[in-house]
Amino acid sequence: MKFVAWRGLSDAYRSAVEGHSPWSAADHDPQPICMRDVEQAELPDSLRHAIRTEGIGAVCFIPIIEGGRLLGKFMAYFDEPHDCSAEQIEVARTIARQLGFGIERVKAQNAAQRLAAIVESSHDAIVSKDLRGIVSTWNRGAERLFGYTAAEMVGKPITTIIPEDRLGEEPLILGRIRNGELVDHFETVRRRKDGTLVDISLTISPVRDASGRIVGASKIARDITDKKVAEAKIQDSERHLQDLLAAIPAAIYTTDRDGKITYFNEAAVQLAGRTPVIGTDEWCVTWKLYWPDGTPLPHDQCPMAISLREGRPIRGYEAVAERPDGRRVPFIPYPTPMRDAAGNITGAINMLVDVSERKQAESQQRILLDELNHRVKNNMMMLKSLLSVAARTSKSSEARTVLDEASKRVAAMAAAQRVLYDTPDAINFGAEPFLGAVCETARQMFPPAVQLVCEADPIQLPNDIAMPLALTINELLINAVKYGLPGNGHGTIRVSIRQNGRTISLAVEDEGPGFELDSVRSSSSGLRLVEGLVRQIGGTFEVGRHPSRCTVTFCQMPQEIGLATKSSDT
Q1: 377: confidence class by pLDDT, cuts 50, 70, 90
Q2: Cβ(455)–Cβ(461) under 8 Å?
Q3: What is the four-CA torsion angle of 264, 269, 270, 273, rounded to 10 degrees?
């Protein structure tokens, strides 16, 4: 409690005892409390000291009450011990009752003034009427919305602003009001003074008198013309969007944030072989799902479910849908979350691209490539055999050397072709199996004492450099065997393919003294061939000593392909 009026009390005393009350706020109908002698009363030491310093001998606390509710307290102080008589207490209570009545009346007047100010300043139309529909009050918001002044409407029926085709609404509204019902957010149309119609939203509440009897209604009307226009635009936009989605040949559907299907186009029905059930089906329109390898894919683990859980688009997956008739359709999904203006996920949209025809084309292409590779392989082996026979039967040592080198080159190309033939990737090959195959083929044509150590990073390279790279390795190995081993033909040759960022390096290292490229270029057809092959792949060729090493550096990254499948860690 705070002091609001006093006489004869010091500032120090008021500061010391302010906030003290002998009753709690929850007490109902509290009674007066009199202390005839404060020195004998049980009080905290700090409060007793403040009272003694003020020179107070006795005090009487009279509660200020209205309707049994504690509003404050009226206090009478005496400078010496004093017994308050019943008449004095009753006088004090009478004063307290008058104070309570005055306080409540002031509060009610203030509340009424505030309410009137709120009603008058409200942008919404606020109207009251009796149970016959006669207008009692009409604020400025109603004047702005309907064009009638308060003088024109007060005392007139509310049907003045109701169009003829909606006059039946008023009896129904008044009937609900008589039953004590609230009519909330009732959207309708009313007529302005100039005859134009306006879309409004009504909230109508019963008005009761002091006894609780319903005597009328208060009405709040809000202009929703802009809302109606916005809703019409949204509906037009949604229809336009659905028309666009329906026209797209790919299967498209949407879900809410919990994964329930909310929309699907006809293409989705055709792909799934069934009509999805909106609000029931979850995550996908399909009946059953599988990974490309045939492993079952639960719907709650499909890309759409992952997209909603993680809040991000999912790309790079392929799946298979099984229709109710048993037919399986491979497809690529493109699930993407949808968000509201605040960034919260409201659902997701997914497009399923049927890749059945492409799969068939790829299978046919694979068959043709396999046949082509098989024929190329056989032709290379036949060419190598012919060259080997020609080298063995030739009487010219120079011819035998040339034919033998040509046979080794064809063998290197055949080794590279085997790697390309065996890889499932149509446009890239692995550096590790490629280097192993080329080195193994070369090893078979070298003396048994020659050791080849081959190492390659697990990287992918484009197919169009396979043949130039195989021939380069073959030439460098032949050169290392000829000139990089001791006189007894024993030794180790190291071959490596390494990646450093976007740069790839091929290195052939032997145990010989090395050589200067410029001094031997004119006399070595093999090195001239290597330089030509390196230029073909856009690389550089360097020769170093200590150790003796030939290095080819190039930048050939694997080519991208458009189809991705399930990763091994999914």
Answers
A1: low
A2: no
A3: 150
Higher model confidence: residue 372 or residue 354?
354
123-223 maps to CATH 3.30.450.20: yes
311 contacts: CB under 8 Å, gap ≥ 6: 337, 345
**What is the Cβ-side half-sphere exposure of residue 529, based on CA atoms within 13 angstroms?**
18
Do 232-353 and 11-118 fall under one CATH topology? yes
Cα 196 from Cα 497, distance rounded (Å): 84
Nearest to 553 by CA among 561, 542, 545, 562: 542
CATH class in words for 11-118: alpha beta
The single-letter code of the amino acid at 217 is A
Q: Which fold, 232-353? A: Beta-Lactamase (3.30.450)
pLDDT tens digits for range 484-538: 786 666 888 999 999 998 899 999 999 888 888 887 877 777 888 889 989 999 9
Q: Which residue has the higher pLDDT, 394 or 554?
A: 554
Q: Which amino acid is at 107?
A: K
In the structure, what pLDDT confidence band is assigned to residue 398 with cuts at 50, 70 and 90?
confident
- Annotated domain spans of the chain: 11-118, 123-223, 232-353, 359-554
Contact between 146 and 161 under an 8 Å Cβ cutoff? The reply is: yes
Q: What is 359-554's CATH number, 1.10.760.10, 3.30.1360.20, 1.20.210.10, 3.30.565.10?
A: 3.30.565.10
Residue among 299, 308, 302 nearest 347 (CA): 308
User: What is the model's pLDDT at position 564?
Assistant: 38
